[in-house]
Design goal:
The protein has two domains: 61 residues, no CATH class; 182 residues, Vaccinia Virus protein VP39 (Rossmann fold, 3-Layer(aba) Sandwich). The strands form two sheets. It has a seven-stranded mixed beta sheet with strand order 5-4-3-6-7-9-8, with helices on both faces. With 260 residues, the chain is an alpha/beta fold. The chain contains ten helices and nine strands. The N and C termini lie far apart (64 Å).
Length: 260
C-alpha cells in the first residue's frame, strides 16, 4: 500500500526539505508502483537530490533524464541557453552546435529544441553523464562522445562550429566544502571542481576554441560573477571578442567570445 501523502510530507519536512509539500506530490505521482514510494521518499530524506530520485529534471520546459550520481542541471543555466539561442536563431543554414562538458545534455537539448534545425555534438568525460545525454539528445540525432573536451570531436568539425556552449566546472576547490550536501555527496566532484580559482578547465576550453569556431562563431561559457573578468581576459587573449552577460534574476553569468 502506498504511503498517504500527509505521511510523505511529514517525513520530508522532518528531513529538512523546504518544499516538502511540492516534493511529496511529485514523488507520489512519479513512483512507478505504490511500493516504490517509500523507497523514493527515503532516498530523498537521506539527502539525494530530488531530480536524481525522480530520474528526471525540468529544464527549459524539457524533461531531462538523470541517473543517480549525474550532475543536476541548474535553473541558472537557462540563461546560458537563452543567450546561445539568441546568437544563432537566424542562422541561414542548420547551426553547428557543440555542447562541451555536456553532463546530461540539458543545455544542448534545450538549444537544439529551440532552433529546430541544428547539427548537435556533445562531449563529456563521465560515461554515466554521456548515457543520460544519449537518451536526452536522441530526438535531436546528436553525436555524443565520451572524452576530454575537444579530443573526441571529429576533425571535420574544425573551423565549422557556429556555437560552442559550455557549462564546465567552475567552483574553486577550496569552496567545495561550502556547497550544499546534495551537491557535495551526490554529484561527481569532477563536475564541480574547477581548480584553485575555478577556471582550470575554462582556460583549456578557451585556448582550444579558436580552432573549432568558424569566423563569426560564438563561444559561451557559464561562470561565476566574480570570475567573469578573468574569463573575459582569457577569451580576449585567445583572439576572440569578449563580452560579459549577466542575469540578476537568475544570478547567472555568461561570458561570450566571438571569432573574428
Amino acid at each position: 500500500m502506498s504511503l498517504p501523502l500527509p505521511v510523505v510530507v511529514a517525513r520530508l519536512r522532518a528531513a529538512g526539505c523546504v518544499f516538502a509539500e511540492d516534493e511529496a506530490e511529485l514523488l507520489v505521482r512519479s513512483a512507478p508502483t505504490p511500493a516504490a514510494v517509500s523507497a523514493m521518499v527515503e532516498r530523498r530524506a537521506a539527502g539525494m537530490p530530488l531530480e536524481q530520485v525522480l530520474g528526471w529534471a525540468e529544464f527549459c520546459g524539457l524533461r531531462i533524464a538523470l541517473e543517480p550520481g549525474v550532475f543536476v542541471p541548474r535553473r541558472r543555466s537557462e540563461f546560458l541557453v537563452e543567450r546561445a539561442i539568441a546568437l544563432v536563431r537566424n542562422a541561414p543554414t542548420p547551426a553547428v552546435v557543440v555542447d562541451l562538458c555536456c553532463g546530461s545534455g540539458a543545455v544542448g537539448a534545450a538549444v537544439a529544441a529551440a532552433l529546430h534545425r541544428s547539427r548537435l555534438y556533445a562531449v563529456d568525460i563521465d560515461p554515466a553523464a554521456v548515457r543520460c545525454a544519449e537518451q536526452n539528445l536522441a530526438s535531436q540525432h546528436a553525436q555524443v562522445y565520451v572524452g576530454d573536451l575537444y579530443q573526441p570531436l571529429p576533425a571535420t568539425l574544425r573551423a565549422q562550429a557556429d556555437l560552442l556552449v559550455v557549462n564546465a566546472p567552475y567552483v574553486p576547490t577550496d569552496e567545495l566544502p561550502l556547497l550544499p550536501a546534495e551537491a557535495r555527496l551526490h554529484e561527481p566532484q569532477a563536475a564541480l571542481d574547477g581548480g584553485v580559482d575555478g577556471l582550470d578547465l575554462v582556460r583549456r576550453i578557451v585556448a582550444g576554441a579558436p580552432a573549432w569556431l568558424r569566423r563569426g562563431g560564438h563561444l559561451l561559457i557559464e561562470t561565476g560573477q566574480h570570475q567573469a573578468a578573468e574569463t573575459a581576459r582569457a577569451i580576449a587573449a585567445a583572439g576572440l571578442l569578449a563580452q560579459v552577460l549577466r542575469s540578476e534574476d537568475r544570478d547567472a553569468t555568461v561570458v561570450a567570445g566571438t571569432a573574428r
